[in-house]
Write a structure and sequence with these properties.
The protein is α/β, with parallel strands linked by helices and 317 residues long. The protein has helices at residues 24-37, 90-103, 122-137, 155-169, 192-196, 205-215, 253-265, 289-306, and strands at residues 44-52, 58-66, 73-79, 106-110, 143-153, 177-181, 241-246, 270-274.
């Protein structure tokens, strides 16, 4: 492995996701146990729901919200990362609790279906079903349907971007913003960062190819390709505000930069945050002061949009 000038807080993050179809089902079981056993922060109320998906499949949801808030509350639809292959893990639960407390909002977590058993479009359709359910049932859960944001990291970022495109195309009520954290966005995998970062910690170009092979086992779809690979969209018109965060040492870096450019070319409002010294999944060192600074930046953006405040104090990290 080459040496990169990684921030000192992330130098020891050497975890790799084994993208092997025979190993992944066991990792999914283990990861779900980790998530289930991870404690919920004080001051958070957790409610579990099950909804029906587009094909009748039962989709588990969890709602995280600060105690004491009940009516007209903003809401974040949270789509976790994990290469379309792994469930949410412990730091995702920490993030959801911190987002809920920091933004005084409710967070709806979608436990969407995963590869290799469920390739595209199952995960996306689960997320779309969850968004429509959220709109239909917002009032009974004390949620203000005019203040809903969509958030996703990594593969969850791909799902968030694709979901936002699908919402637009289906003329469904649009979210207030999309927050894309080091998102997957391009099946072509031809950017400079994809060619350069083939052995970076946690995630790299080699694993990225394996991910796409599992997510699109039949190859790139001939229609609605943007719902699998958002950068391939024919149009980026009429999309909500976007926050895009990228890591310095991440094979996904340049495709996220290209997504930012596409959105801006079509006149969309975009906040781009380029973090320094970071690697994919750096939140594994959750207690790092630098990690907390980056998370605070996200919360600041979401809170200002939920509160309809025009000015912003979002800074490069």
């Amino acid at each position: 492995m080459r040496t990169f000038q990684v921030h000192e807080d992330y130098e020891r993050l050497r975890i790799r996701i084994p993208m092997h179809p025979f190993i992944l089902p066991f990792l999914q079981i283990i990861t779900r146990l980790i998530f289930k056993r991870h404690p919920i922060k004080d001051g958070i109320i957790n409610v579990k729901k099950t909804i029906s998906g587009y094909d009748g499949h039962s989709i588990p949801l969890e709602i995280f919200g600060p105690s004491g808030i009940e009516h007209d509350v903003p809401c974040l639809l949270f789509l976790h990362g994990g290469a379309f292959a792994l469930p949410a893990t412990g730091y995702h639960k920490k993030l959801m609790c911190d987002y809920a407390l920091g933004c005084s909002c409710k967070v709806v977590f979608v436990d969407y279906r995963l590869v290799p058993k469920y390739p595209y479009p199952f995960g996306l359709e689960d997320c779309y079903s969850a968004y429509k359910w959220l709109l239909e049932h917002a009032e009974e859960h004390g949620i203000d349907s005019t203040r809903i944001g969509i958030c996703g990291d990594s593969a969850g970022g791909a799902l968030a971007a694709a979901l936002t495109l699908k919402i637009r195309d289906q003329s469904v009520k649009a979210p207030l913003f999309q927050l894309l954290v080091y998102p997957v966005s391009d099946v072509e995998q031809t950017t400079d960062s994809m060619k350069k970062f083939v052995d970076t910690p946690i995630w790299n170009a080699r694993l990225n190819k394996k991910m796409w092979d599992l997510y699109l086992p039949k190859g790139k779809p001939s229609i609605n390709v943007e719902y699998a690979s958002p950068l391939q969209a024919a149009s980026f018109n009429d999309l909500p505000k976007s926050y895009i965060e990228i890591n310095e040492f991440d094979c996904l870096r340049d495709e996220a930069l290209l997504y930012n450019i596409k959105l801006e070319e079509y006149g969309n409002e975009v906040t781009l945050v380029q973090t320094k010294g970071t690697v994919h999944g750096f939140e594994l060192n959750y207690n790092s002061q630098y990690t907390q600074k980056i998370i605070k930046n996200r919360i600041e953006y979401m809170k200002k949009n939920f509160d309809h405040i025009e000015s912003s104090n979002i800074h490069p990290c």
